[in-house]
Each structure stands twice: as structure tokens, then as C-alpha cells.
UniProtKB/TrEMBL annotation, chains A, B:
One of its GO terms (cellular component) is Holliday junction resolvase complex. The gene is ruvC. The active site is at D7, E68, D141. This is Crossover junction endodeoxyribonuclease RuvC. Its EC number is 3.1.21.10. Mg(2+) 1 binds at D7, D141. It is found in: Cytoplasm. Binds 2 Mg(2+) ion per subunit. One of its GO terms (biological process) is DNA recombination. InterPro entries: RNaseH-like_sf, RNaseH_sf, X-over_junc_endoDNase_Mg_BS, X-over_junc_endoDNase_RuvC. Homodimer which binds Holliday junction (HJ) DNA. The HJ becomes 2-fold symmetrical on binding to RuvC with unstacked arms; it has a different conformation from HJ DNA in complex with RuvA. In the full resolvosome a probable DNA-RuvA(4)-RuvB(12)-RuvC(2) complex forms which resolves the HJ.
Length: 182, 182
């Protein structure tokens, strides 16, 4: 399973693509940051961001997209930009028929460190370890996007294992009637 | 000048297209609401909204898009949906190279009623009057989208008049050097 993780933002949007499957080692496919200039108008920025995400999807062909779920933050103008950038990422995936999942920052942190309140260094350390990288991913901001992608691989993995167990218990016909296979 | 006004929302997105020019009567081209179901996932909703706006742009070919500028509101989950829907509308316009402007609710209200604190009935009454409609626009929510479009026509008009005055004063060559013509 190949997952594109997106840590949405207008000025810096973290993107990371990871290959993984239940019980198998994870593999880094791509990591980076899509930047747009605060000097440009919002339309230009959103379209540039869209182009960057589209290109990455074309190049890496993920099976799913995981976007950070935006919550209210202290700074309202930041929330707006994050929500707008997130909407573009979600639409890029959904337009191609890719499953799009939203995970909270806590879920992503908990997935890679075991704690939903882990700090940035801890997340970067674990992402580096889990992907067996020689050095922390650069730019540092993109570690969050990789954590999201890993979070999704493992959640998908857990769901796939449950699914497999159900299929073994009841037979595939029953499973298909439920329309739960993918 | 033909303007598409968008009052962004996920469940109900008001859209209104108006023809107008400085000192000329306004004309209603199209008005409506694009709805998406709260039961659907966010990806499906954003892509449906995008499709609705794309179709309207195809049908009516506006010269510009005016989107309501989202501010912090009481209900955070509403703000998120509004920001996400607004991002889709902005991207739809910008992707086609259309100028996209953001106007605040107060600016739109002030444009059609003279007061930035006018209530919904006042806005609907004035939109109905200014567009010389036999009855208030339906659905009522779309009146805000029409007010935004009218606001933009008139602001554009004022800018165009200033521009024309500048051109008369300094000659078109100067104007073109400034790259201000459109």
C-alpha cells in the first residue's frame, strides 16, 4: 500500500509518500515541501499548491491520501490557510477516486511514537528510524507528512487484518455481499 | 462585466451571476445553491461542489469571481467547512485565469444597502430591487452570493473609472508601463 501524507499549509505544505503493509518494513518513496509565496494572491497560491500535489500524485501513484485534520488553533488566519490548503489536497485525491482519510495530529504522533503528545523531535526521530533513513528527513517540516502516511498505512493495515480475519471466519462470499472488500 | 459571486458553504453554497457595468442597470444571469450531503465524506463533497461551480462557469462564462472572505465565527466546524468550500471556489476561478476577489460580508452588505450591518431581509430586498426582479431571489440564501457579485461589479466599476481617469490624465502608454490595464 502506497500512501501520500499531506500536512497542509499555504506557505509550507509538507508531503510524504510511504510504501508499507502490515508486518512489512516501511519504505520512503518521496518527501518534500510545496511552498507558495505569501506575496501572491490566494488564487495563485491554491492553484500552485494544487499543481504540486497533482505532479506528486502523477509521479508516485499512491493508493490513498492521508491529510491532517485541521482543528481550531490559536491563530485564526493560520487555521484558514490550513483549511484552504487541506481542501485542495483532499479534492486532488478525491477527484481521482483515491480514498482520502483525515487523521488528527495526535493520531499521527501516537502512531509513530506511541504518544499523542510527542514533540517534534520525537516524531522526526521515530520517522527516521521507522523508514530506516540515514539522516532525519529534510526539510524537517515534512516529517509530519511522513508520520501521517505511516499512521494511515498502519491503520489500513489493522483494518486489513481485521478484514482478513472476518473473511477467514465467514468466507469471502459473505464478505463480498457486505461490500467491504478492497 | 459578468461576475460570479460565491457565498461558500459545504452544505449550501450560494452562487449568483450578475451582468453589470458602471452607470448601467444590473442584470441577473443565474442564481442558485449548490448542495452537498453531510452524510458524504469530505472528499466527495468538495469534488461535487467543484463540479457544480465548474458547470456554472462553463454555462455563464463570468469575467471575474467574487468569493466571500471567511472570518473566524462562533462555530469552528462551520468556519472549517466555509474555508474549505471557499478554497474550492477560489481555485476554480484561478485555474481558469479569472481574477478572483475576496469581499467581506460587510463590504457586500454595504454595497447593496449602504450599511455593513444590514440584516438578511434588507440585503434580499435591495438585491431584488437592484436586479429588478419580480420576486426575491430563490433560494433566499443565494441573495448573499448576488450581493457579493454586485459588490464586485461596483468596486470593479469604481476601479475602472479611476483607471480611465488616470489614463486620460497620463496617456495610455504610461498606463501600460504600469501593467495596470486589463
Amino acid at each position: 500500500m502506497r500512501v501520500l501524507g499531506v500536512d497542509p499549509g499555504l506557505t509550507r505544505c509538507g508531503v510524504g509518500v510511504v510504501d508499507g503493509a502490515p508486518g512489512k518494513p516501511l519504505r520512503l518513496v518521496s518527501v518534500g515541501v510545496i511552498r507558495t509565496s505569501p506575496d501572491d494572491d490566494i488564487g495563485t497560491r491554491l492553484v500552485e499548491l494544487e499543481r504540486g500535489i497533482e505532479e506528486l500524485i502523477e509521479q508516485t501513484r499512491p493508493d490513498a491520501v492521508a491529510v491532517e485534520r485541521v482543528f481550531s488553533q490559536h491563530n485564526v488566519s493560520t487555521v484558514m490557510g490550513t483549511a484552504q490548503a487541506g481542501a485542495i489536497a483532499i479534492a486532488c485525491g478525491a477527484r481521482r477516486g483515491l480514498p482520502v482519510a483525515l487523521h488528527t495530529p495526535s493520531e499521527a504522533k501516537a502512531a509513530v511514537t506511541g504518544s499523542g503528545r510527542a514533540d517534534k523531535l520525537q516524531v522526526t526521530t521515530m520517522v527516521t528510524r521507522l523508514l530506516r533513513l540515514d539522516a532525519p528527513p529534510k526539510p524537517a517540516d515534512a516529517a509530519d507528512a511522513l508520520a501521517l502516511a505511516i499512521c494511515h498505512v498502519w491503520r489500513g493495515g489493522a483494518q486489513a487484518r481485521l478484514q482478513a480475519a472476518r473473511t477467514r471466519a465467514t468466507g469471502p462470499a459473505h464478505d463480498m455481499r457486505q461490500g467491504r472488500t478492497r
